[in-house]
Write a structure and sequence with these properties.
Blueprint: E1 2-4, H1 12-21, E2 28-31, E3 34-37, H2 44-82, H3 87-107
Antiparallel strand pairs: 1-3, 2-3
Length: 111
């Protein structure tokens, strides 16, 4: 069960309306200054679906990070060849990109 106690009690009707119009399939129970949401326990099938969605989102995030790093490396190479960026600056930027990617790899969750 989730209990929602808004800071502004006048907004309870708006919150209730938003919950009802969402695709959550949850009926809010309004009590004076708070809203209760009864959430049924997850079935094994639903848990697997959610785990699969989370895994897919993780894969998409990895691809996005790789693409950003690739694009940044291309831009650094282009600037280095054009002579507009000193060699040490390019090396520092490349090192930072690698460090951020390794940090991401180290801190990510495994599904």
């Amino acid at each position: 069960m989730i209990v929602i106690k808004p800071f502004d009690p006048a907004s309870i009707k708006e919150i209730e309306k938003a919950i009802k119009s969402s695709d959550l399939s949850i009926a809010p129970i309004v009590e004076s200054k708070l809203i209760r949401l009864n959430i049924p326990p997850l079935s094994e099938e639903r848990r697997r679906q959610i785990a699969q969605q989370v895994k897919q989102l993780g894969e998409e995030a990895k691809v996005i990070i790789r693409n950003i790093r690739r694009d940044a490396n291309k831009e650094l190479e282009k600037r280095k060849k054009a002579g507009s960026s000193p060699k040490t600056t390019s090396k520092k930027a490349n090192t930072r990109l690698t460090m951020y990617q390794r940090l991401h790899r180290k801190n990510r969750f495994h599904c």
